[in-house]
Amino acid sequence: MTAHRIPLSELERGIPFEQRHIGPDTEARAKMLAQVGYGSLEELTAAAVPDVIKDAEALALPAARSEAEVLAELRSLADRNEVLDSMIGLGYYGTFTPPVILRNVMENPAWYTAYTPYQPEISQGRLEALLNFQTMVADLTGLPTSGASLLDEGTAAAEAMALSRRVGKVKNGVFLVDADALPQTIAVIETRAEPIGVEVVVADLSEGIPAEVAERGVTGVLIQYPGASGAVRDIKPVIEQAHELGAIVTVAADLLALTLLASPGELGADIAVGTTQRFGVPMGFGGPHAGYMAVREKFARNLPGRLVGVSLDVDGNQAYRLALQTREQHIRRQKATSNICTAQVLLAVMAGMYAVYHGPQGLRSIAQRTHRYATILATGLKAGGVEVVNEAYFDTLTVRVPGRAAEIVAAAREGGVNLRLVDADQLSIACDETTTRTQLGAVWTAFGVEGDVEALDASAADTLPAALLRTDEYLTHPVFHQHRSETAMLRYLRRLADRDYALDRGMIPLGSCTMKLNGTTEMEPVTWPEFGQLHPFAPAEQAQGYLTLIRELEEQLAEVTGYDKVSLQPNAGSQGELAGLLAVRGYHRANGDEQRTVCLIPSSAHGTNAASAVMAGMKVVVVNTAEDGEIDVEDLRAKIEQHRDELAVLMITYPSTHGVFEEHVADICAQVHDAGGQVYVDGANLNALVGLAKPGRFGGDVSHLNLHKTFCIPHGGGGPGVGPVGVRAHLAPYLPNHPLQPAAGPETGVGPISAAPWGSAGILPISWAYVRLMGGEGLKQATQVAVLSANYVAKRLEPHYPVLYTGPGGLVAHECIIDLRPLTKATGVSVDDIAKRLIDYGFHAPTMSFPVAGTLMIEPTESEDLAELDRFCEAMIAIRAEIEKVGSGEWPADDNPLRNAPHTAAVLGGAWEHAYSREEAVFPAGVSAADKYWPPVRRIDQAYGDRNLVCSCPPMDVYDE
């Protein structure tokens, strides 16, 4: 008997990655297709996807490659990056990520595959970690209320400008920015200010606010502390002068410097902003990093973004949750003052844990060492006759060398060190946690001077002004003192991870959020030093691997979407929206159509759409939604006619937010174009289109993409994300650019959206790898299976729960909405009850009450296998039977497993006086005792937490009261 011969080429490839990424195998797909009523994936998607949008051409992408081959390609790209010792500064610094944090947070799927903690009962670990972050920021800035992170320092400063305008007394004054602020921060503020009519004035504030500016009225002031030049100066007189003018004062502060210097709060600031990058988060060519904002207590309810608060569960136990959620843009929509809908949770957790691990003494020691190196370096330069511009500095020196600056920067580069060229006569040098004696020697050599570190250390005096030294204590909470050993830290991180639910435990079927596999091969290169340790303003010739990867990913995303040009700069979906709308605005203005400011948005759209439109200087006009969930075409036609001369853009999500393919989308686009408007296709649901249809081909002019959805960047517990924007050729001249990197965008661009030229470049290898691993055919198949899985779940649940919206043939797209409102009306069981009961079954709930109140939106994605899909469906069916018991009166409406869910291990002890058994509570149908997930707390009292706002680590006596 002769064995079957398999060609070597096939054996070499091994199992294709698409089979690792896509959960259902061939046999499972056949079962699912039978349930849905179709014979093949092609037949299903032919029926589900309207002919008018289908793209018959195969994606022109390189063929799929194996995991080993893709890692080898990425290694080749990484090797083309030249990582020199960075002494550039400007808000980006070398840092050591403690290996216990690197391995157990950044590289741990228990942390990086979690979702935003909207279900707080199963997010207690990450919420505690964020509370640590908030406490760290609040303590160091001297301001009592900190948010759970913002996108980066530049956008945090822009958010501070908007907050100043909202809460300040001077509504129509200028926003005054310190000339010594980081240049990228100034540029982001200017980008954000112009569309909303805020005038930004940049001035030297070292001698106070210029009289000619004060006379015009000042809404807010932003001061950098220490300055971009490195200067440390007493900013209290400027703050007092600004307050006399009625202005709100923001201080952009370096948190490491604040371990030694008086805090912004002590100096009188109202707001503090900045980045936590240097607290253990790699530079990553610009991101992702956790920005921060802290405010005076009276501004807490006006903070943009997310805020973690302390509340109680129904048993009176301390529990954490997102506080004051009604402030968030997804609720306030066009009334929002910010479009921020995310945070940088994974990076905030890392930065907070860096402080937990080092504690106040460790952080202070790192700061003292950094300052000491700067002082020794400066003393050696002065001894060699070099002029150091500032007498007082923390870590950064600006030196004046008339006519020689470029020559010295080049010489330092030859010696393996990058310095910052300021102009022909000046350069700056920044020290950080990673600075060594060797680097000091290389810098002295570049200047042509000699220095002896030991001798200079003995003679050099610290330069921080005595009057500005910090005297108060910080990080006094026990959490910053209990985890010094690696053993203690390891166990603390494990304990917190065990309190959470992430994709490493099971399915997270969130509609509109696309929680799918984040492949380990895709993730691995992110922590390679060649990608992680590169400064965003390093010379372009040192970043050839990154720039090649960026160019290729831009081209791949353009091919997938049918657009002509893609910018990767926006570091969140909301920022991609803003960039796209600013491109539309720039296009109309270039054509002389400045009156085109109306943005049409369907009532079902995500709240960021409306908020972004307002930030782009547009007027939002809402279009009604028809009973079938699609856009009300008649209302749209009427609104187009009503606003024909003012129409700037229509924003639609496709497939619709209701989870269906709208057949008339091409007609809608044509009507808008006929009226002179543009069409923005929100890319939130692109996972239903890749390989089947291209927004840029069926009528879209611009779209943002969510790489943390469709292209496998993990959600990280609520960030990081990347929100690239794709445009057709006529909008390309108006994409974001950057003042410090000409290659990052067109000269005619709208300015930077993010602080770094390519936003969160450090995680772009994930999406590059995903596309490379899957190839065009694999991407298409992933889309088809995502559509199959959603229809399979819909068909299985339809006999038990009505599916609210369907398209042709009763099919949905990649997600489905089940309507719980009739059940709630009949039994009193709410959508919250079902969501919390799913925890007892070992599941994260689907999306609750969006886009329709009283519903659940389910998106299974392509990565969940049939066993997990069935486990979820069976849990939902079992819950339906439980609801029937409530409806029939077998279980009281106020005492049943749904109303009391979730149930913790603690309920197993003591007396039991419920109408159902302990077993029914904690081991419902299909739940294995051996594999049971135990939530750490019971249902949390949301209202109590908002009434009694506590958003930093509280002493225990707070709860005794």
Automatic annotation (TrEMBL):
InterPro entries: GcvP (IPR003437), GDC-P_C (IPR049316), GDC-P_N (IPR049315), GDC_P (IPR020581), PyrdxlP-dep_Trfase (IPR015424), PyrdxlP-dep_Trfase_major (IPR015421), PyrdxlP-dep_Trfase_small (IPR015422). The gene is gcvP. Belongs to the GcvP family. Pfam families: GcvP2_C, GDC-P. Residues 782-903 form the Glycine dehydrogenase C-terminal domain. Residues 19-447, 454-736 form the Glycine cleavage system P-protein N-terminal domain. The glycine cleavage system is composed of four proteins: P, T, L and H. GO terms for molecular function: glycine binding; glycine dehydrogenase (decarboxylating) activity; pyridoxal phosphate binding. Residues 626-653 form a coiled coil. The modification N6-(pyridoxal phosphate)lysine is found at residue 709. It comes from Streptomyces flaveus. Its EC number is 1.4.4.2. Its cofactor is pyridoxal 5'-phosphate. It catalyses: N(6)-[(R)-lipoyl]-L-lysyl-[glycine-cleavage complex H protein] + glycine + H(+) = N(6)-[(R)-S(8)-aminomethyldihydrolipoyl]-L-lysyl-[glycine-cleavage complex H protein] + CO2. GO terms for cellular component: cytosol; glycine cleavage complex. The glycine cleavage system catalyzes the degradation of glycine. The P protein binds the alpha-amino group of glycine through its pyridoxal phosphate cofactor; CO(2) is released and the remaining methylamine moiety is then transferred to the lipoamide cofactor of the H protein. GO terms for biological process: glycine decarboxylation via glycine cleavage system. Keywords: Coiled coil, Oxidoreductase, Pyridoxal phosphate. This is Glycine dehydrogenase (decarboxylating). It comes from the Bacteria. It is an enzyme of class 1 (oxidoreductase).
